[in-house]
Amino acid sequence: MKQSTTILFLSWGLRGLAAIILLQTLYFKFTAAPESVYIFSTLNMEPWGRIGSGIAELIASILLLIPSTAAYGALLSLGVISGAIFFHLTKLGIALPLVGDNGELFALAVIVFIASAATLYLEVLKYQRSHQSPNSTRTSSTASSGMATTNR
């Protein structure tokens, strides 16, 4: 299998994983499920934080699933999920036993963070490769093979 095909499958897998996790939490946020209300009440951000983060996660998911906007989706996803991880580490705790969570929400947030960061990395590599000028490739390969000449 060619390297570019492997990267393509990896990119789709990472983007799909992050988007699926983000999308599955929307039901809880938009229906004011007790778990979500508890979390955002604890943070003194209920209901605007719950609904606002849900809207941001929906937009990030859509952007992640469109190849031409995947980098923007990854950036937005990293921003939203960084906030979730921050609040888990500072105010909420990793586990939320009062709502039956034994750390699963935190683990899902970390998975989304890693998948989004890896997606952004792959998108940056793709951008760099597509904007590399033919001269810079030729010059660097000539110089590395020891065939560069200097004027004296």
Q: Can you describe what's shown?
A:
With 152 residues, this protein is mainly α. It has one domain (3-130). The chain is 76% helix and 0% strand. It has 6 helices and no strands. The protein has helices spanning 3-30, 34-42, 48-65, 70-92, 104-130, 134-144. α1 packs antiparallel against α3 (48-65), α3 (48-65) packs antiparallel against α4 (70-92) and α4 (70-92) runs antiparallel to α5. The longest helix is centred in the first third of the chain and has 28 residues, at 3-30. The radius of gyration is 21 Å and the shape is elongated.
Total domain units: 1
Q: How is the biggest beta sheet arranged?
A: none
Briefly note the structural class of the backbone.
mainly alpha
Low-confidence stretches: 139-143
H/E element order: HHHHHH
- Rg for CA atoms: 21 Å
Number of helices: 6
Number of strands: 0
Give the structure's gist in a few sentences.
The chain contains six helices and no strands. It has 152 residues and is mainly α.
List keywords for this structure.
152 residues, 6 helices, elongated, mainly alpha
Strand-helix topology:
Layout (H helix, E strand, L loop, with lengths): L2 H28 L3 H9 L5 H18 L4 H23 L11 H27 L3 H11 L8
